[in-house]
Structure to design on (678 residues):
């Protein structure tokens, strides 16, 4: 496909703390992420990983350099245009889960869909349900508020929420940083699966296990980024075939719901025929990837 | 639409999540609004009552006094009677004294005019100009254990040994106007002739009430009197109403000030509550923004919180205020002073609606600033906030 999912060109970020004190959090960072990529960024604390992620997620603006998402230069966009970008193109997963405390698990997943105004309440609920199934969230906890979920469960909700509007890519800042070993393993497996199903994922992590399953590892130090030497250990996650098959069915269900939604939007003239064609093409690509 | 409802529900749950704070804020608003609404109701009753009193006393009549507030010679009564359009000029004598050693206000008018000043509840009016008979307000009579037929002793500075009068009738308690005129005393009515003796005002009157033939001619008569007798001060019902109005306006200004203070207090309460909500949620605001909530939607959420507080506080306050107004008018005011104040309790939607609107406006305005600040929070900073 044409443009990369994300392209950062010579991005620098300098924080001015006082008259003469400045922190160069990023220095001329260039990064290109293709669709379907699964990349990780590792590096010591304070090296600028979160800063880069925030800029890639349009939460922050670079001091200099350009950021292109889906081929669109977002560097100069207004705050409201950025809001729209975040809503439709980017999914966030944070270290501290960051669910909305007074919404239930399923409502947290529905929220981005309702904010996008593209889904009716019913559609949003059904899709949220499927997404939560896909990430392996227990179905008897759908109505629990975040404070009655384990860390692992909360992170699953956060991942499902990040997927809600079919983002161009998912940004995850230390998604396992606050989880025990077995929950981490589940989250890692989930992220791998999602990537296998065609999602573009960018993670910042200290977790070597997690970094190892990604297709590309970048290393950051002092605000600069280096690509790690290509690794031979590009291993496949071992996964039970039956489980994989059921996830595959859920993912295909989600794609079917998505197709129905797009068709409804097109029929009620809420989207142009251009974006309708593009969305259909996208869905077909994804379906192919899921089916292998 | 669904989005807005969803966000409103978010606000509602946020408030529901901290019931104590929400409850206290609503209580604060409710107290402010209740005081406002009850004062409004009392003021409304006061206005209505004053209007009524003046109307029953004067109707389409005119009151004449001396400009220098000295007594008017009774001779003037005859002169006034000759002015075209005048039906009758009624001399009135007023003064203070004691009834059975209680303060009393003595009102003396010709006996055929007594009933236009006093409404007789029990008994009859005074039988003849020279009879030693009087009317007493029912409540004072009951308080003093006096009934029709009893004899009371009236004492004035001029008749220190006092004169015994027979109580022939009990009158309705004087209206507010009378209370304002006479202070905390009961009004004892006697004939003009007896009043002259008791108050040592032979051949003079304190004021003259003029009845006109044709109500539409009042202004003609007033002009005629003003031109013919420049030393007389003439007041019509309108003038008296205006005068009363200016007193009432002063009362209203006081009421308004008290209300303004209570609304400011309620507003500050709302502001505090909304600000606290936002403080606690800075990180969550960052998260909301990261998943695509626009600044306008953030603004909407917290304005909604303020509005919900205002709506609930305003509703409770208005209901409480109407109840409080009722209690003040029916229970407190009649007992608070030695003379009875009976105001009508007027139940209209106006105070309720006003209370609600003011509460909503106050909470909207006071949550505007913190909500605007919340909508401007930058997502990165909010996400890094601990
Ligand atoms: N708002 C800010 N103002 C000033 N300096 C900042 C700000 N945010 C980050 N920094 C600085 O920028 C540098 C990069 O921070 P960043 O959070 O990106 O590091 P990181 O690689 O994510 O670290 P960690 O692994 O600990 O999360 C650090 O030196 C940090 O102190
Ligand atoms: Mg970090």
């Amino acid at each position: 496909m044409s443009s990369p999912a994300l392209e950062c060109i010579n991005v620098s970020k300098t924080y001015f703390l006082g008259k003469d004190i400045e922190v160069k959090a990023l220095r001329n960072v260039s990064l290109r992420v293709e669709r379907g990529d699964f990349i990780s960024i590792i590096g010591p604390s304070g090296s600028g990983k979160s800063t880069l992620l925030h800029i890639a997620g349009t939460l922050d603006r670079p001091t200099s350099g350009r950021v292109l998402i889906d081929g669109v230069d977002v560097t100069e966009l207004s705050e409201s245009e950025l809001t729209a970008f975040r809503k439709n193109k980017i999914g966030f997963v944070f270290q501290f889960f960051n669910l909305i405390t007074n919404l239930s698990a399923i409502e947290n997943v529905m929220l981005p869909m309702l904010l996008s105004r593209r889904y009716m309440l019913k559609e949003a609920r059904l899709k949220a349900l499927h997404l939560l199934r896909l990430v392996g969230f227990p179905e008897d906890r759908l109505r629990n508020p975040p404070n009655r979920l384990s860390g692992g469960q909360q992170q699953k909700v956060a991942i499902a929420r990040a997927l809600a509007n079919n983002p161009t890519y998912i940004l995850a800042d230390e998604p396992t940083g606050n989880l025990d070993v077995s929950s981490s393993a589940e989250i890692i497996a989930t992220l791998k699966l999602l990537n296998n199903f065609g999602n573009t994922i960018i993670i910042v992590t200290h977790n070597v296990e997690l970094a190892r399953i990604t297709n590309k590892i970048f290393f950051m130090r002092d605000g600069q980024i280096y690509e790690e030497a290509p690794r031979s250990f590009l291993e496949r996650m071992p996964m039970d075939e039956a489980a994989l098959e059921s996830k595959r069915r859920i993912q295909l269900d989600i794609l079917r719901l998505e197709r129905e939604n797009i068709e409804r939007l097109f029929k009620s003239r809420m989207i142009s025929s251009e974006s309708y064609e593009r969305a259909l093409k996208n869905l077909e690509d994804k379906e192919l990837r899921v089916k292998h | 639409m669904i989005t807005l409802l969803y966000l409103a529900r978010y606000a509602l749950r946020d408030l529901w999540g901290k019931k104590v704070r929400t409850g206290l804020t609503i209580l604060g608003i409710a107290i402010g609004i209740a005081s406002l609404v009850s004062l409004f109701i009392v003021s409304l009753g006061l206005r209505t009552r004053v209007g009524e009193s003046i109307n029953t006393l004067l109707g389409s009549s005119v009151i004449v006094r001396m400009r220098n507030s000295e007594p008017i010679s009774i001779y003037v009564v005859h002169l006034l009677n000759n002015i075209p359009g005048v039906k009758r000029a009624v001399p009135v004598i007023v003064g203070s004294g004691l009834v059975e050693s209680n303060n009393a206000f003595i009102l003396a008018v010709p006996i055929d005019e007594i009933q236009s000043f006093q409404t007789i509840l029990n008994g009859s009016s005074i039988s003849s100009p020279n009879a030693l008979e009087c009317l007493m307000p029912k409540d004072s009579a009951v308080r003093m254990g006096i009934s029709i037929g009893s004899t009371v002793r009236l004492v004035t500075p001029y008749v220190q040994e006092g004169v015994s009068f027979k109580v022939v009738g009990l009158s309705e308690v004087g209206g507010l106007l009378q209370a304002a005129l006479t202070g905390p005393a009961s009004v004892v009515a006697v004939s003009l002739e007896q009043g002259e003796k008791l108050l040592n005002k032979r051949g003079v009157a304190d004021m003259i009430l003029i009845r006109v033939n044709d109500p539409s001619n009042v202004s003609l008569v007033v002009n005629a009197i003003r031109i013919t007798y420049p030393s007389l001060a003439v007041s019509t019902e309108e003038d008296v109403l205006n005068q009363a109005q200016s007193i009432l306006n002063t009362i209203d200004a006081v009421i308004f000030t008290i209300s303004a203070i209570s609304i400011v207090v309620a507003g500050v309460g709302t502001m505090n509550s909304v600000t606290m909500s936002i403080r606690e949620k800075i990180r969550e605001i960052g998260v909301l923004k990261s998943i695509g909530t626009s600044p306008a939607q953030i603004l909407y959420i917290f304005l909604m919180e303020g509005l919900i507080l205002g709506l609930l506080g305003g509703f409770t306050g208005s209901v409480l205020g109407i109840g409080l107004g009722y209690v003040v008018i029916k229970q407190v005011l009649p007992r608070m002073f030695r003379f009875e104040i009976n105001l009508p309790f007027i139940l209209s939607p106006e105070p309720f609606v006003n209370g609600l609107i003011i509460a909503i406006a106050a909470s909207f305005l006071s949550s505007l600033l913190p909500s605007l600040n919340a909508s401007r929070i930058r997502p990165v900073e909010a996400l890094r906030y601990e």
Observations:
- Residues 243-292 of chain A form one domain.
- The mean pLDDT of chain A is 88.
- Chain A touches chain B at residues 54, 57, 59-60, 79-80, 83-84, 86-88, 92, 94, 98-103, 111-112, 114-117, 120-121, 161, 165 (CB under 8 Å).
- The beta strands of chain A are 6-16, 22-33, 38-42, 64-69, 72-73, 90-93, 169-173, 201-204, 216-221, 224-227.
